[in-house]
């Protein structure tokens, strides 16, 4: 089981391994690759969010701002999403919040990190790719369990770099597989739970566990919506505002408490589109422990954000280690096949030598 699952899943596990190591530093890499759009010169008080909205919509006729992704640091730009009023099209743009200048369209920037994120989530292949990722994640779980069982009789804890290559490959796979087995189980379990939350399932889970509060609002301007959300969740920073596509839909606000290291935060509020009143809230601080564990800790463990940079580095290294296991495993099988082939060939050569060697009688030898 370990052999055949490993042979089939290895190529997909290498893809998940490399892309996982990259997206552990996704935001940092994206800022480094697109500094002209994602970085701004911090300069005092930013413009009103509503003024920025009016200016962008004036510069982009036929488009309406439907989402705000607020900067978390003074030198980060404002990321907004626009929707066409004539067709089902979406545009992603970056804006300097101090001047209101449009810095660029995300579609023309360096999309390396976005591609790596899509590769990790669904192999950049939509629904079919997502199913392959789920199957590969299940395979990783089975490989971790069965690998421990196969490791147990020999208990190889280390490998010697001066060993012959086949022996080095074998020992490396067994020792590294043992020491990383808990990490591989963690990757597989949290990965499956994150996939369960995808495709709108997370929002559904949050809404099902929301608490009705009905706190008064201060209007439906962006400034008023931010103020109402901050009052409803004191101490949380507003991360996103998603404006409704239809008049009867609610406004969705996402916020993040300091201890929540997920990028978008895991505190959700639904606001009245007319008055800005906070109707419901799902707070990561007051939610049931199982919900906090599912929507916060699962992602923090999977991405390594739970303790900041040190755990992100650790997760990236462990993710790359999966590539080592995915490559050394099949090489064990290849080496065994080569050994069998060389053995058969040696026997054939020996048999041929025996057939062609003249048989000398006792008399002739005397």
Tell me the layout of helices and strands.
Blueprint: H1 2-23, H2 26-33, H3 35-38, H4 49-59, E1 63-69, E2 78-84, E3 90-95, E4 102-105, H5 112-122, H6 126-151, H7 165-179, H8 181-196, H9 201-208, E5 211-215, H10 222-232, E6 237-242, E7 251-256, E8 267-271, E9 278-282, H11 289-303, H12 309-356, H13 362-365
Antiparallel strand pairs: 1-2, 1-6, 2-3, 3-4, 5-9, 6-7, 7-8, 8-9
Helix pairs in contact: 1-5, 1-6, 1-12, 2-5, 6-7, 6-8, 7-12, 8-11
Rg from Cα = 29 Å
* Share in β-strands: 5-15%
Low-confidence stretches: none
Whole-number mean pLDDT: 93
Order of helices and strands: HHHHEEEEHHHHHEHEEEEHHH
Oligomeric state of the chains? single chain
Percent helix: 40-55%
Main sheet strand line-up: 4-3-2-1-6-7-8-9-5
Give a quick account of the main beta sheet: strands, pairing sense, barrel closure. 9 strands, antiparallel
Shape: elongated
Class computed from helices, strands and strand pairing = alpha+beta
Number of continuous helical runs: 13
First-residue to last-residue Cα separation: 61 Å
Number of strands: 9
């Amino acid at each position: 089981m370990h052999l055949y699952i490993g042979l089939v899943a290895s190529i997909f596990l290498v893809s998940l391994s490399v892309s996982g190591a990259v997206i552990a530093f996704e935001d940092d890499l994206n800022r480094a690759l697109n500094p002209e759009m994602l970085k701004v010169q911090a300069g005092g008080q930013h413009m009103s969010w509503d003024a920025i909205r009016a200016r962008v919509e004036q510069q982009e006729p036929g488009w309406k701002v439907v989402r705000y992704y607020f900067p978390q640091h003074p030198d980060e730009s404002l990321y907004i999403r626009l929707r066409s009023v004539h067709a089902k099209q979406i545009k992603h743009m970056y804006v300097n919040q101090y001047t209101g200048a449009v810095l660029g369209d995300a579609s023309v920037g360096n999309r390396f990190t976005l591609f790596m994120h899509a590769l990790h989530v669904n192999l950049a292949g939509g629904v079919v790719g997502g199913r392959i990722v789920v199957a590969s994640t299940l395979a990783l779980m089975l490989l971790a369990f069965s690998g421990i069982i196969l490791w147990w009789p020999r208990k190889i804890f280390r490998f010697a770099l001066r060993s012959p290559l086949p022996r080095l490959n074998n020992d490396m796979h067994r020792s590294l597989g043992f020491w990383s087995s808990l990490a591989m189980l963690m990757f597989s379990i949290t990965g499956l739970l994150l996939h369960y939350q995808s495709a709108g399932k997370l929002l559904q889970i949050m809404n099902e566990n929301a608490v009705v509060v009905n706190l008064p609002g201060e209007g439906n301007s962006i400034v008023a919506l931010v103020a109402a959300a901050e009052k409803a969740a004191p101490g949380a920073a507003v991360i996103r505002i998603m404006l409704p596509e239809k008049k009867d839909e609610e406004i969705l606000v996402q916020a993040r408490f300091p201890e929540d290291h997920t990028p978008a935060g895991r505190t959700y509020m639904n606001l009245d589109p007319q008055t800005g009143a906070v109707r419901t809230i799902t707070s990561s601080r007051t939610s049931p422990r199982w919900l906090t564990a599912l929507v916060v800790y699962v992602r923090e463990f999977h991405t390594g954000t739970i303790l900041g940079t040190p755990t992100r580095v650790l997760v990236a290294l462990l993710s790359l280690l999966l590539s080592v296991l995915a490559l050394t495993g099949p090489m064990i099988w290849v080496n065994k096949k080569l050994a069998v082939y060389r053995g058969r060939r040696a026997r054939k050569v020996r048999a041929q030598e025996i057939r062609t060697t003249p048989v000398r009688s006792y008399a002739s030898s005397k």
